[in-house]
Amino acid sequence: MTSSVQRAKEPVNYQIKRALKYLPIFLVLVLFAFLLLAPLVWMCLGMFKNDAEILSYPPRFFPTANHLVENWRNVVARVDMLSLTRNTLIYAVGTTIPGLLVNAMAGYAFARFKFRGKNVIFLIFLATMMIPFQVIMVPLYLEIYYMGWLNTFLGLIVPKIASAYWIFLYRSAFHGLPKELEDAARIDGLGEFRIFLQIMMPLIKPTLITVVLLSVNNCWNDLLWPLIVASSTKMRTLSNGLAMFIGNRTSEYSLAFTAAAVSMLPMLVLYIFGQKYFVAGQATSGIKG
Amino acid sequence: MVATGRTRQISYERRLERTAYLFLAPAAILLLLFCIIPLIASFYVSTQDMGVDLSKAQFVGLKNFVKSFSDRRFLQSIGITLRYTGIEVPLQMIIGVLLSALLTRNSVINKLFRSIYFLPVVTSAVTVGVTFQLVMHSNIGIFTYWLKLLGIPDANLLNNTSTAIYVVIFVAIWKTFGISAIILVSAIQNIPESLYEASAIDGAGKAAQFFHVTLPGIMPSFWFLLMTRIIGSLQMFDIVYTMTGGGPSRATTTMVVYIYDTAFNSLNKMGYATAMSELLFGFIMIVTIIMYSIMNKTSE
User: What is the CATH number of the domain that holds B132?
Assistant: First the structure.
C-alpha cells in the first residue's frame, strides 16, 4: 500500500521529470527562434545607430544613442521614399481591390454553377498556376511594351489582377455554403450578381481577409515584376527602388539599415494583427495538394 | 402544361449558364491576355534572335536551344541551381518535419514559437537580402563577429566563391522553414487521435508512433511540400539577386538569375533568354511528373 504522502509527491516528481524531458526540445526551439530573430532585430536596431557606431569594433547589438531622425533625413535626401511608398501602395491596393471582385466571381462560378466546359476551363485555369513566371516574363514584357504600358500603373497592375491561386481559395470557400441560401434569395427575386455580392460574399469574410492580406503582402514584397515593367525613377516601388539604392553599395550603412527596416515595418504590423489569416492562407495551399 | 414547364426549366438553366460565363469572363480574359498568350508567344520568341525591337527579330529556328548547350555560363548556372536545390530542399524538409513534430500541441508556448517561425513570410526578398548582406558583412556584420567568438576568424562568407552559395542556402531556409513546419503541423493535427490510441494499445512508444503513425499520416502534405520546394528552388531568383547579385564571380548565378541578366541586363537577348527559360520549364515539368508518379505509387 502506498501512503498518501507518497502519492501526493508523485505528481511533483512527475512534473520535474517532464520539464527535464521537455528541456532539450525547448532549447532546440529557442535556438531556431534565435537564429531567425537575431538578424531581423539587429537590422531594425540598426536604424537607430549612426555610421560611427555601426563601424565600431566589436559590433554592438543594441544602439547606445538614438540617431533615427538623422538617419531618416539622410535616407529621404537620397531616395524619394515618399514616391516609392506611394507607388507601392498604389500597386498593392490597385491589384488587390479589383482582384477581390474578379477572382471571387470566377471562384463563385466554379463553386456554384453548372455550365458546359466547366472541367476544361477549370483545368486551363489550373495549368496557369504551373507556368513559371520566367517563361512568360519576356513575352509579357514585350506585350506591355507594345501596349505602351511600360512604366505606367496600368502595366504594373492589370496583368497581376487575375490569379488562379486566389480563384481556388475562393472556390473552396464558396463550395461549403448551403444551397438553400441561394434558392431563398432567388425566390425573393434577387438578381444573381446581388446574390453573389450581398449574400454570399459576406459569408466568406475570413477568406476575403486572407486574400487581401496575402495579396497586399505579395505586391509589397514583389521584386521581379516591378523590376521589369516599372524601372523608371518615378515608377519604382519600395522593393526595386531599395534594391537599386542599396545595390549601388555605398559605405553609408546607416542608410541601408534605416531604409530596409522602414520598408518592412508596415508588413510587420499587418502580420502582428493578421497572423492567423497569413497562416490560413499557407495552410490551405498545403491541403490543396 | 408539361411542355411549358420544361421550356421554362431549360431557359432557367440556360440563364444560369450564361450568368456563370459572365462571372468567369473578367478573370478568363485577364488570364488569357497576361498568361496564356504570353506562354504561346514564348514559343515564337524562343525561335528568334531578338532584342526589344520586334522588327529586327530574325528567325533562327532551334539555334537558341542548341546554343545553350555549349554556353558555359548556362551550364555553370545549371550546376549551381542543382547544387543549391540538392542541399536546400533536404535540409528544409528535415528541419520542417523535426520542428513540426516538436510544435504539434497547441500550447501557448508552441503558438508563440510558430508565430516567430512564420514571421519571414512578410519580409521581402530585398529586406532579407540587405539584412544578410549586413549581418554577414566582413567588418560590421554581427554574425561575422559571433562566428569569430565561436573560433572562426575573418569569416567573409559572402565574398568567398566557395561559401557564398551556402549563405544563400542558409538564408533561403531561414526565410521559409517556418512555412514548411506550419503546413506539416496542420497535417499532423489532422491525423485522427484514434490511430495514436490504437498504436499505444499495441505497445508503440513515442518514437515508434512518430515513424508508424505520424510520418505516414503527413505523407500527402509532405509530398506536396517537397514538390513545391523543389520547383521553387529550381526557380531561385530574388534572394540571390538582392543579396549577392549572382556573385562573387558568378558563384551564385542560378539559372533564373542568368536568364534575367540575359534578357534585361547586359545584352537584351530576349529570344535566347526565353529559350533557356523554356528548357527550365521543361525540366521542371519532367521533375513534377516523376515526383507525381512516385507519390501515387507510394500512396497506393
Answer: 1.10.3720.10
